[in-house]
Design a protein that fits this description.
Glutaredoxin; globular; Protein-disulfide isomerase; Thioredoxin-like_fold; single chain; isomerase; Thioredoxin-like_sf
């Protein structure tokens, strides 16, 4: 199915609640692996890295955005090993919800303990082509079934049709646990609210978008354009 048609058909359901301090040299030389330090903020973001890092980077991403998938696939190892590991940069992943598929995956990435989030996040972007090929091939009857379903079962139908359960089951999650996460209406509305708040706060118009030390980077939308911004700020 044409991507534009799919997006238009899915958009009808989005309204259902989807509507620093400089790093001290002693810290950098400590040998601590800051990629193992994660937390979840009150506004729903997931942080990785040194809380006192010189650079605080927020990544606004969508799980149905191919450019977000490319960014994550290209930057993941380089970002973690080259910038986060030794405490220079702290990153936060923020959801920007565009459609019900986005919301389905956001609910799944947030399933379980917050320490699982970044592994869940990478797992989905590494399988982007698999689930989006299924989404593009969805029939009008499938999309109508998703749209017509009540909120507590809508995302379970999408997860089943697009093979999303298997991605999480491979990470050790049980189907019953995933179903509870996908039918959590309060979490659904919380993620939708946080998505809208982040987008409005920084005037974000597309994904991926990056906010560095509280300021939107208007010309950075890929790893090739973000990396120079990080290096210039760090004086590398």
């Amino acid at each position: 199915m044409n991507r534009r048609i799919l997006a238009a058909a899915l958009a009808t359901t989005v309204s259902l609640g989807m509507a620093g301090t400089a790093l001290a040299p002693a810290q950098a030389a400590s040998g601590k692996d800051w990629t193992q330090t994660t937390s979840q903020s009150e506004d729903g973001g997931h942080w990785m890295g040194n809380p006192d890092a010189e650079l605080q980077l927020q990544e606004f991403v969508s799980y149905t955005c191919i450019h977000c998938a490319h960014f994550t696939q290209e930057s993941d190892v380089a970002m973690r090993l080259g910038y986060v590991h030794d405490g220079k940069v702290r990153i936060e992943v923020r959801h920007l919800i565009r459609d019900p598929i986005d919301m389905t995956i956001a609910l799944l990435t947030n399933c379980g303990d917050q320490t699982k989030f970044f592994g869940n996040h990478r797992a989905f972007f590494n399988r982007y082509d698999d689930y989006m090929d299924k989404a593009r091939a969805a029939t009008p009857d499938q999309i109508k079934r998703w749209n017509d379903a009540p909120l507590d079962s809508k995302f379970k139908l999408i997860a089943d049709d697009l093979g999303l359960y298997g991605i999480m089951e491979a990470r050790g999650f049980a189907r019953a646990q995933l179903d509870r996460c996908l039918s959590d209406e309060a979490k659904t509305r919380e993620i939708a609210r946080q998505s809208a708040a982040g987008m409005n706060a920084y005037k974000i118009k597309g994904t991926p978008s990056f906010v560095l030390n509280g300021k939107l980077l208007p010309d950075a939308h890929s790893w090739d354009t973000l990396k120079p911004e990080l290096d210039d700020t760090l004086g590398l």
